[in-house]
Every structure is written in C-alpha cells, then in structure tokens.
C-alpha cells in the first residue's frame, strides 16, 4: 500500500531547477516509489517567470516568497536549488519549519554557513537532509562503490580525480559563479567538490590532510550583466554591458591530499580547460584492483582485476546498464531500459529523487545519500584547500572545526 504523498517545494528555477523538476516528475514513472511525489510549490524571484516555469514543469503553485513557502504546513520536503550564499538561510529556515531538506552542492559558500546548516540539522534529528552530489547516482560510480565495499579494490593506494570544463573564457560574463561572496569559490566548489565527494564515497575514507594547493584566477575582469546574481551558466559576453567587474574566485584548482587509510590523492578542476566540456574523471588504484570513470562515457566503468591470471590481466570496460537476473544487476538499471540503451545526465537526478523517497519512507537507498553531516566533511576539505593555497602550507583537517 502506498504511503501518504510527499509534497515537495523547490526554490530556484534555472539550471538545477530544471534538473530537479524533471527528476520529481519522472521518478514515479520509472521507479516503484513507496510514496507518490507531488510537485507542490515552486519558489523563485521573478513571479511571472516562476509561474511560467511552474506551468511548464507541472508545479501546482508558484510563489516569489520562499519564506512563506517553507513554512507552508502542506510541504514535507524543501529543495534548495539556489546560489550558494543563500543555501544556509533557506535550508535552516526549512529545517526550523519542520521540513526535510534537499540542498544543492556545495553545502554552502562558506564553512561558517555549512556549520550552521549542520547544527540546524543536528537539532532536528527526525528530519532528513540530503545534498545533491548527484554523480554518486551514475550507475558506474554506484557500481564502483559496491566493488570497493565488496573488497574488490583491496587496500587503496592512490586516487586521481579531475573535473574539467572550458566555458569560463574571457567572454563569459560576471555571473554569480565568479562572485566570491555568492559562490564562495570557483572551480573548487563548483566542480572539485563533486570529485572530493566521489572520492570519499567510493573509498569510504576521509581526507585528513591537504598537503598543498594552488588556486589561480586567470581572468580577473569580466563583463557585468544587468542581473549578474541571476545570470545563467550559458550567458555570453555579447549580452553583457561593457562595464567590467572583478572575478573573485579561482578559475583553476590543483591540490594533493592524504586519506586516513593511507591513500594519497591528486585533485584538479578547471573551468578554463580548453577542449573539455564536462570531463569528470576519477581513477582509484588498490592492491586488488582499480577503477576508472569518465562522465563523458557515463554508462561505462573501466575495471582492472589485479588478482586475475596474468594472461587475462587488462582493463575491462563494463557497460553498467544490465538489469541482471542472478546478482540483482547493475545499480538503478532495473528502472530504466534494456541493457546498453543508454541513460544520461538527468537520470542521476531522477535516481537521487527515487533514493530520497525511499529514505523518507523508511527504506534504504541503492547507495548512500550524502546528508548535511557528510557534505560538511567535503566542505571542510574545500576550506582546507583554500587555506593551503592562501598560506602555501599543508593543512590538517583536524585543525578545522
Ligand atoms: N549537482 C550539480 O551537478 C550542479 C550543477 C549546477 C549547479 N549546481 C548547484 O546548484 C545551485 C544553483 O545553481 P544553478 O546552476 O541552478 O544556478 P542558476 O543561476 O541557473 O539558478 C539559480 C536560481 O536561484 C534563484 N535565486 C537566486 N537567488 C535567490 C534568492 N535569494 N531567493 C530565491 N531564489 C533565488 C534564481 O532566480 C534562479 O532561479 C548552486 O548551489 C550550484 O552550485 C549543482
């Protein structure tokens, strides 16, 4: 028997607004959810545009007053899909109003904001929190997690992660992603945060030290849009006024880290990696095996079995889309298409909605969902990287509270 409907309110209606709205509308069609999802209310800043978006994507109500929406007694789950500097205010208000909260990543723009969110969540232990580190729900990375838990990687020696894009050249205007007070950081919080989460997720280990970090801002001045804080990722310089403003975030980040279990890691992220569009890659080497993943081949996981007969040793490419018969198949494949009928970016969000509904119905997700406490650990790494780059020295995570 189905439980009560889950009434969702979402704040934000642009890039992630579309990804999340699509996910809420699709999850119940493909997954057998224990509770129906109701797309109750959409909140964003411009009422006319918000109404239009709500109508197009199937939200029942639209509002330009998120403070009232999060207090609405009919709402069960508040989804925060706004720029990083408002995550804290919105998530804490929703928690204090008794709601579950699903917040976009990074948890916040600053460690102080993230800590306030963590404390608010701790004060409300019966309410669930989730963070949209959606790449965990790429079937290939979920399989890598399962392989690691089953001991197939053995002792992990080495993690190598990079997340490379090239959209932030000199023509990209000063959208909120280039404003330190709004975003907190640049490629670090935007892209590298995903890599840090993925590395922590698959290894099941914590980063204990950032040995050294470089943050570089190559393009220091950008054209100012009339509404920079609301500008979208796709904004082009041609639409911008000629006035220039200062970019106050990193274009590129590189850092080296150590894990508690002894593994060492290198991370790299850039929005100026000419030629790369969304190259989110990770490789993990253990004494029993290794994995490598590249989001631009999102259905595939490369696997190396170091315990195999020498004559058979070599990288295997697994198409992670087999619903399976005997062993339960690949993660999430049961909900989608026949084997190798590929899924895409939006499915990572749909998979996350399905898992969130499971958790909110008392069941387990396919693979663990990050909550505020988990995402706070990633936020501490972001902070350590910033400190390490600023002071040109190693930073132990134990020094960060
Ligand atoms: N999980 C992912 O892969 C992924 C990808 C992109 C962005 N993000 C994260 O999602 C969040 C939003 O990013 P985006 O790309 O959707 O940004 P966006 O600029 O495309 O959209 C932001 C939305 O928030 C609204 N907004 C801004 N300030 C607001 C306020 N004070 N009150 C209410 N609404 C407000 C805007 O009107 C807009 O609808 C960020 O935290 C970002 O880091 C995550």
Structure explained in plain terms:
- This protein is of the alpha/beta class.
- The chain folds into two domains: 6-134, NAD(P)-binding Rossmann-like Domain (Rossmann fold); 139-337 and 378-388, Dihydrodipicolinate Reductase, domain 2, CATH 3.30.360.10.
- It contains ten helices and 17 strands.
- It has helices at 15-30, 47-57, 66-71, 87-96, 111-123, 139-149, 180-183, 187-203, 345-360, 372-391, and strands at 6-11, 37-43, 61-63, 77-80, 100-103, 129-131, 156-164, 207-216, 221-223, 244-246, 252-259, 264-270, 279-286, 289-294, 300-305, 316-319, 395-396.
- The chain has a nine-stranded mixed beta sheet with strand order 16-15-14-13-7-12-11-8-17. It has a six-stranded parallel beta sheet with strand order 3-2-1-4-5-6, sandwiched between helices.
- Helix 1 links the parallel strand 1 and strand 2 (37-43).
- Helix 1 packs across helix 9 (345-360), helix 6 packs across helix 8 (187-203) and helix 8 packs across helix 10 (372-391).
- The protein starts with 5 loop residues before the first strand and ends in a 5-residue tail after the last strand.
- The site of nicotinamide-adenine-dinucleotide (NAD) has 23 residues, from helix 1.
